[in-house]
């Protein structure tokens, strides 16, 4: 695939982002399902991210918690499950089979083999593969009887889940592990169990487990085509590098899927080649300037491997942790300009790090978004699981917001 004749510059990419990611004031969604469908996947490693990402994009943000809980736990139109790069996401339930077949099967096979090896070798042969299979069958039967259960509840039904083995024996990272923690994770990667309603509030990371709803088994190549097509519709244009990073696939799989869907090459600012879906070459009209406060691990901030078109490299040390996880970010008109945090009393505070071209209108719009976020949080304190330098500084620093 060579360079195409159509050029999509940075300004147009930012306009596409505003509309397709539901961030422009005129593009906001009515339901969490619309948000998830527009973004394909919401990062679910930090439970609060799901709610904050949805709330930033809802027309009526005050309904965020109730509506997300309805979608996840009552209507089951959204599902929290393992997906790309061994990471937990929230997907539209209709995509569960596509995600499982396109990315989960390979990950699951590796995770299963590692589990059996670690349990057997880490117990000195005391725990065998046959023993593990018996415990697994018993635990799944108990989960089916209960409907939903915590690991603690399951261990009361199947005490062998509490057995321990040594992970990485003789290595610097040697540590004891419990069969239950590893087994439930592998069952999640295999798509056999999903995370259910958490204990406590919506910010809690102590989830119950539930047996996964049945879904059809799809051919992996067809599922890869469908996932890539949906993601390009949401995030195109994107480069091969972006696609390989986001999916976690081999470059040969990315190229095969691009060819299969007839992806159209376009040139980007800087000379790189990006791809869009067929029929998506039409220019995106400019949109009104917009402001947003997006959470740590937001799918927009984490959507591309090459982020220079919306995030200046000099801002990264303040906004990312040491593992590459983005923290809470402040956006103006398609680019990251700073970060935000909550103080101990729940107040939302923010700081601009890149003020180029920001006038009074921008600062006032950001302040309105901060007030909007603070209103629906209603005093709930949210601390990101992966904390970044600016977030930690702002959360501990006294003084007026926006300084």
TrEMBL record:
Keywords for the protein's UniProt record, in alphabetical order: DNA-binding
The GO molecular function terms of this record are: DNA binding
Pfam families linked to this entry: AlkZ-like (PF06224)
PANTHER family (UniProt xref): LMO0824 PROTEIN, WINGED HELIX DNA-BINDING DOMAIN-CONTAINING PROTEIN
- Official protein name in the record: Winged helix DNA-binding domain-containing protein
What organism is listed for this UniProt entry? Streptomyces cynarae
Q: What is the lineage of its organism?
A: Bacteria, Bacillati, Actinomycetota, Actinomycetes, Kitasatosporales
